[in-house]
Amino acid sequence: MRIAILGASGVAGRALLPLLLERGHLLRAAVRSAAAAQALTRPGIETVMCDILAAPSLAPLLIGCDAVINLATAIPRSGSSATWAVNDRVRAEGTPNLIAACTQAGVPRLVQQSVAMLHCVDDSRAQTEDDALEGYGAVLSSAQLEQAVMAAPLDWRIARGGLFYGLDSGREEIWAGEINTPEFRVPGDGRAWHSPVHVRDFARALVRIVEHADTRQAYIVCDDAPLTLNNLYSQVARKHGRPLPPTGGPLRMRSFRTSNAKLRGIGWTPEYPTLEAGLR
């Protein structure tokens, strides 16, 4: 297939590109600068200057493509002065721009990145794609983009990613910094659930979804073992030879506990089935 990719220079995109090239796909990557284009230059990848927030610029990216994978985000990095406002625009405004451009260009298939954190209504058991969603705070725009995608006249497939770690996500460095800060406290009472996913496993899931998933379906992409914050920080602390910090810190996201059973049903299995395996 010829596949257009938005967000190709992001954490998930950098993991995805070589996997798609190995599968023989021809790639066209959206970039917003000459430096980004140069960084992505390699056989099998064509770069196109465009911006998901500038609807007319998307047409050259999509011409002749069989599918598009939208990983576009603008998530502010820890310690930066950036806010979530641009990311909200990319998701809530940019996604409808892309849908309209796909429809006009005749691109039939859209794989859209979303977040498993939307499954925050109930954590009494691992939630599936059939369970309720709720947008809130920084993930409200993810709920909005899903609504736009599900209403689109396309062969859409949604990948709801868990909490990224691994490769160059920076997550391990954040955890290590927290564990080594005496003032740090595990958020809340430590009993909230998180469902992690290694970035490489998320990228492998995208390959499976674009090639083999059922049409007009959402898939949760997480590892096999959701864990509580106390468990998560216990594993991080053990790796760094530190004690588990006390609880009582501010909550930064709602508890979410999810299942990857549906994704496993189309032939995907994680290389890192647990956080412990990924942290080795």
How would you describe this protein?
- With about 280 residues, the protein is an alpha/beta fold.
- It has a single domain, classed as Rossmann fold (3-Layer(aba) Sandwich).
- It is about 35% helix and about 20% strand.
- It contains ten helices and 13 strands.
- It has helices at about 10-20, 35-40, 60, 85-105, 140-150, 170-180, 200-210, 230-240, 260-265, 275-280, and strands at about 1-5, 25-30, 45-50, 65-70, 110-115, 155-160, 165, 185, 195, 195-200, 215-220, 225-230, 245-250.
- A seven-stranded parallel sheet has the order 3-2-1-4-5-6-11, sandwiched between helices.
- β2 (about 25-30), α2 and β3 form a beta-alpha-beta unit.
- α1 packs across α7 and α4 packs parallel to α5 (about 140-150).
- It is globular, with a radius of gyration of 19 Å.
- The model has no long low-confidence stretch (mean pLDDT about 95).
Features:
280 residues, alpha/beta, Rossmann fold, seven-stranded parallel beta sheet, two-stranded parallel ribbon, globular
- Reading off the top of the CATH hierarchy, the class is best stated as Alpha Beta
- Tally of separate domains: 1
Structural class: alpha/beta
Continuous helix count: 10
CATH architecture: 3-Layer(aba) Sandwich
Q: Considering the protein shown, what is the CATH homologous superfamily?
A: NAD(P)-binding Rossmann-like Domain
Helical content (DSSP H or I, runs of 4+): 25-40%
**What is the terminal separation in angstroms?**
35 Å
How much β-strand is present in the residues?
15-25%
Give the tally of β-strands.
13
Q: What is the CATH topology?
A: Rossmann fold
